Amino acid sequence: MHLSAPIYRLKRNARDLARQQGIPLHRALDRVASEQGYQSWSHLASQASQARPAAAVLSRLVPGDLILIGARPGQGKTLLGLELAARAGALGRTGFFFTLDYHERDVRQRLSELGLPPSADAGAVQVDTSDDISADHVIRRLASAGTPALAVIDYLQLLDQKRSTPDLATQIGALRRHVKETGAICAIISQIDRSFDLSPRKMPGRSDIRLPNPLDLAAFDRICFLNEGRLRMEAAQA
Question: Where is the SF4 helicase domain (predicted)?
C-alpha cells in the first residue's frame, strides 16, 4: 500500500488537524492513518518502516562504496539520504550529511519528522552546511571523525558550481580514492533532468542524470533511482 505523501508530511498534516479541530494529536494521527487505509498510526508507521528504501540500500552497502542517488524533486532522494545518515550507527559508523541546499535547522527538522525506526539516531548525524563544501572539505571532515563514516552529499550538481574548486570529475575521483583507502561509504544525491517527466518510462536511467560537465559514472559503485515510491539499485559499471 503506497502512502499519498511521505510519512513526515502525513505527521505534519496530523499536527495541523489536531490544532484546527482541537483534538489530541494521537487521534489526529489515527485519523490520517485511516485515510491512508491503515488501522491506526502505529500500524502505518510499522508498515512504512518495513518498506523504507533506506533499509534495502543499507543492506547492500559495503565498505568503500561510492553511490549515486538520483530522482526528480519530491520523489524522496533527500529523505533517503537523511535516513542513511541517521542509520549509520547500525553499521558502526558515524553519519554525516553535507548540504549546500539547506540550513542546519531545516535538516534537523526533517530528521525529527522522518519517523525513524528505534535503531536510528537522528541526533548523532553530523550536519555540515558550510559554503566551502567540496570533495576536499568532505574528505577532511571524514578523516577527522576517528570512526568509520557514512557520508551523504546533497547534491552532485552543486559541487560543480564554484570556479575555485576542482572540476566535478576530479572531485568525484578524490572521493572514490578516499572511500576505497579508508573503507568509508559515501552517497551523493543527484538531480534528474526534467525531460524525464515527459517520458513514458517508470524509472529514470543514467542518461537522465543531469551533468552540466562531463563525468564518467563508472566512478560510482552503484546507482540508486527513485520514482513513485519505487527503488532501483544497479551497478554503475554494468
Answer: 138-225
Q: Based on the number of CB atoms within 10 Å of its own CB, is 187 exposed (0-12), middle (13-18) or buried (19 or more)?
A: buried
How many distinct structural domains can be found in the chain? 2
Reported pTM: 0.81
Place of cell 537523511: 82
pLDDT digits (tens, 9 = 90+) for 33-85: 899 888 888 888 766 655 578 988 998 999 999 999 999 998 889 999 999 99
Task: Write the DSSP symbol of residue 209.
Answer: B
Comparing C-alpha atoms, which of 67, 95, 91 is closest to residue 189?
A: 67
Which residue type sits at 109? Answer: Q
Whole domain around residue 40: which residue ranges? 7-51
Q: All 3 cell numbers of residue 145?
A: 571523525
- Residues in CB range of 159: below 8 A, 6 or more apart: 100, 133, 134, 135, 153, 165, 168, 171, 188
In total, the chain counts a number of residues equal to 238
The answer to whether position 1 is within a domain reads no
